[in-house]
Amino acid sequence: MNDTLLPPRVVLYEGHGATPLEPADRGQLVAALLDRGYAVTLAGENTATATPDGAFIVVGSFAGHSPEVNGGLVTVCDMTGATVEATVQAVEAARGDRRMNRPDAATAPGADNLTWKPWFPVIDPARCTNCMQCLSFCLFDVYGVSENHELRVENPANCKVNCPACSRVCPDVAIMFPKYHAGPIDGEPVSDGDVTREKMKVDISALLGGDIYAKLRERSDEAKKRFSRERSADQALAERRRCLTKLADASAIPREVLDALPSPEEIERRAEAAAARAAAARAERETAT
Amino acid sequence: MTTPDAPSPRILYCRCAYAQVVPSEVKDAVLEGLAAAGASFEAVPDLCEMAARRDPHLRALASGADQLKIAACWPRAVRGLFALADAPLPATGVDILNMRTESARTVLDGIGYGPRGTEASP
């Protein structure tokens, strides 16, 4: 996501000098633009339209008398007499080669477009105690620490889509995934029962050895011994799969995420690095407070 | 022209376009209701996606002086998303309507464009 430009914003202007759209057309046009990844401002005469990066596309029925617009990268599309679909096409043309993330990228024109499902942890600051367990747990550098020594989501795009595993290790139920299908992980208010349940999940993890990465390493070592004895790559792989299956069943980590994990050695390296970062963050917080 | 003059409060509508966790019939009906009422509002494809980009527009929305009504999902999640984008919402003056659980009518009523609001519009 970091290399993605801000998409241009569309301003649907119906103020002075423009003919208002029929309500049905207005709704259809906005829905079509949103479903293609454009943010839309519906503007009357007094609505501010400035955007931080100055790039926007003004759409309206101007009957050939397009308004003068001050600003940076502004394109005006006169949709007088045009259908909703034709107007959407005009907006796409006005965007040009500008690369953007979009929900319909698989069928959209422009090979450079991205389809990144925005899946990442969101911290509830009212619940988070900055214990850094999630920072220690995550192998993918999703989490970081702010200048104020507080936990923050530093690299959302590093998160593994549909994996809510870190929310399961949070003892305070402070990690949400807004696109998850159920509460409280989806952001639903947390009940006392949820807190108990979430703590039980941590206990389940503890039953596996207190640390699933430690468990992975342990399994890996066993597999390595067998591998060295038997020289059977197939058996080593089967062993790893058995381990991953158990972990998937116990902690609700999607199988595809576990299957995509790096080698046990790399897991060990990353887990140690993450644990060191968490320990340093905790120490810095203690010093600061 | 039926657009009201610069209505206060400001309205933000999230389409949640990258997932199917908000019922389509609700988010479609809320959008239709706002469009039919001629409301001036901000509509975004996906608040999560904007938060991940730390889109500066979220800071502009969070820092405005007028009351802000947000049609999206769980308030806890919405506040967390704005905080993640370094644009924390103020503790007061923000109403978050949950399209995951509420009906379109309830959401539109909360925004001020329910059946009564629509009747009152020119």
Overall description:
The complex is a heterodimer of chains A (289) and B (122). With 289 residues, chain A is α/β, with parallel strands linked by helices. Chain A is built from 9 helices and 8 strands. Chain A has helices at residues 23-35, 84-95, 133-137, 165-169, 192-207, 212-230, 233-251, 255-259, 264-288, and strands at residues 9-13, 40-43, 56-60, 74-78, 122-123, 143-145, 151-153, 175-176. In chain A, the strands form 3 sheets. In chain A, strands 2-1-3-4 form a 4-stranded parallel beta sheet, covered by helices on one side. By secondary structure, chain B is an alpha/beta fold. Chain B has a 4-stranded parallel beta sheet with strand order 2-1-3-4, with helices on one face. The termini of chain B are close together. Mean pLDDT of chain B is 88; it is low at 116-122. Classes of the chains: A alpha/beta (289), B alpha/beta (122). At the A-B interface, α1, β2 and β5 of A face α1, β2, α2, α3 and α4 of B. β2 of chain A pairs antiparallel with β2 of chain B, so a sheet runs across the interface.
